[in-house]
Amino acid sequence: MNIVINDFVADAGAGNFDEVPPLRTTFEWLTDIVKYDGTPKEQRNQIYERPRRRFFINWPIVEEASRDKIVELFHRAKGRYNTFLYKFRYDYSCALTECSVTAVGGETTTQLIKSYYVGETESWDEDKKDIMPSSVYAPIVKIDSTIKTEGTHFTLSDTTGIINWAGGTSPVGTLGAGEVVTANYQFYFRVRFDMDIYEDLQGSYEFFQSNPMLIEVIP
């Protein structure tokens, strides 16, 4: 599902739906460990090349209409089964320095990425596939610092994060070796609920506390 949980809950028209600090996030480097019976030996298998996130949502006060939206989304998602989108207030945009891709040459497409901990020894790149559409935030895309025009030089899929180069690039329709593509854009995290059970706390007749946990889904 391409429902954005932040917007979906806000659509109820209730004022108190935004997250309140402190916001808790964890990073998980998943390792599968196989132990051998009767020995201290173990085999470690790396599952992820980069960490996945868990988001602990903090909605200390939500009005009943917003709470009903959360329950509705939980039902649409069928608990942990279906995925949806989440805008994390501290990580939803990519500046040009974090989103740089150098062409090998001959590419007709470019996958949008974001680099984390740029310049550090253990930095990593993440493909960003769920992009905020142009109607929400118009991306700025450049080749070698020259701005390219969406619809003329390229099209961008907001469900794959792939730039398709059209006529007007250099050379036409393809990238030359060493050309640097940079982009300024905003994105969502694709997530799922961590449980099949929804729980909230009713603090008064019309107000609730809701703290669902969301798990990032890595394609």
If you had to describe this structure to a student in words, what would you say it looks like?
This protein has about 220 residues and is mainly beta. It folds into two domains: about 5-85 and about 190-215, no CATH class; about 95-185, no CATH class. It contains two helices and 20 strands. The chain has helices at about 5-10, 65-75, and strands at about 25-30, 30-35, 40-45, 50-55, 60-65, 85, 95, 100, 110, 115, 125, 140-145, 145-150, 155, 160-165, 180-185, 190-195, 200, 205-210, 215. The strands form six sheets. Strands 1-4-20-17-6 form a five-stranded antiparallel sheet, with no helix packed on it. Strands 7, 8, 12, 13 and 16 form a five-stranded antiparallel sheet that branches. It is globular, with a radius of gyration of 21 Å. The model has no long low-confidence stretch (mean pLDDT about 85).
